[in-house]
Amino acid sequence: MLDENLPTYHFKPSTDSPLHTILYFTHNGSDSAATYILMRADPALPQAKNKYAVALTEASSQSIIYAESLVEPSWTQPTLSQAEIRANNGVPPPATPVVPDTVTLDLYNPDSQVVIRSKPGSWGKSDSWEFELPEQSFRAPSASMLDRDAEASAPPIADVVPKVVFRWKKESRLGKEMTCYMVGRSVDGRKSKEPDITIAMFKESRHGGSTVTIYEPNLRRVDVQDRKGLDIVLLLGAEVVRDVWLNPKPGLFNTGASPPPTAGRRKDSRGQSSSPVGGVTMSGAIGAAVPPPPPTTASAVPPPRKDQHEIDAETRRLQAMVAEEERQARERERQARERERQDAEEARRIKAMLDQEENERRRKQAEVEAETERLRRQYGVQGQAYGGGPSPMSPEGNVPGLPPRPGGAGRGTYFATNNLPHPSPPPRPVSAGPSGAQMSGGSQGWWKPSNGGSSGGGGHQHSASGGAGAGGKKPSSNPLSGLLGSGGVYGNPAASVSNFFQRHRDQHAEGSRPREVDGDDGRKLTKKRSTHF
Q1: How far is Cα 304 from Cα 96, in angstroms, rounded to an integer?
Q2: 8-75+94-139+150-251 belongs to CATH 3.40.1350
Q3: Domain spans, the chain
Q4: Locations of Gly residues compositional bias (predicted)?
Q5: 3-class SS at 409?
């Protein structure tokens, strides 16, 4: 099924009668419901001999006939070749039916005829069957009795009425599927070609049934007034095309006994009638008289062997198909078993690999624990730092401490002295500051007194703590002496090199002494950055 939402008719043989086929209709996924019955002629009836007849009736009442078709074939004439007659054991071969090129469908209420014409395919083209439907099939309603009488006795639809052209086309040269297209319009016998528009699809199943699907989205583009007639023509036409041209069966025309008798005269290739064949035939010798064949009756004619050959060929084909299906089933089972075996082997391989990895991990863990235990027994645990001290491997433990500052207190001296009561500042040494050019030459020169560097004025000399010699200055009343002393923050060589503090101290010192001027007092003095902060 192409799509369960499309209108679809399923052809299924009836279980009550082999001559009936029930058409089940489904739409939008609904349950199948019997809508029509396709009836074929009974071959046992004398009226059905050498004919093909089929009708489409209502499923609930078979007396309501919507459309029917009757096909009478033409017959081939007996051969005149004596070689063929001798090959057939002296009996002329029977006449065989010839399928006509046109088939007529008779529709009722309103009465109309639809002719299906066969168009054989050529190189690169498949076979096709074409038919036409009028755009307007019903007359306008009228209350006049004259119009009713004219409608009852109206002739078939004339050619001047516009018609829509449809075509059943075989999908492939070997397939059993067809598609119906709307290919154009026909007015007064002149056809206009249009792009093909899909209307219906026919598909034959293996079990003898078939399916006709109406492509509903394209029906709005079909300008046909009788939509019911279009459905009937599509259903009946598809079945007739399949039985007559697409997949004909051996007993199509019910040829049970003998072909109908031919006329006394037959026509030659030029269409002229000729006398019946006499008893003289050219068979090898010129003018040799050959006795006429003995008269044959219907009972003496042997049944054609073609049917038996076809049955045997079909039997062999079915047997080969069944054997192929069994072989494919066995192959699928073998492949399934092979896949299961491969999956089991892969699972075992993965499990073994995981077990091996687990064993390796446990072995390495055991080695690590054994080595740890050996090292613990050898070195013990005394050297391990469990407290808050820095680890020997930490980067902070590898950094060496700062060396002590020369002549000054440690890093925390200032903060420690601030927490205690401030003692009285000690007396400043005599040689605390630079005096003259003798102060250059290293940090030791700051604390050593110069030979001639006694202060002018001859004041009292005080001995400084730390081993300062004589010749120092008197204690200064400078308020910064507490910071500039040896116990102060700036009492170190780094702070004592600043000329700012030296000049400030010289200005507030008691007494006067000659001061050397370098001549660069006008320049801006730059304070050296302390190393404390």
Answers
A1: 10
A2: no
A3: 8-75+94-139+150-251, 426-450+460-511
A4: 453-472
A5: coil
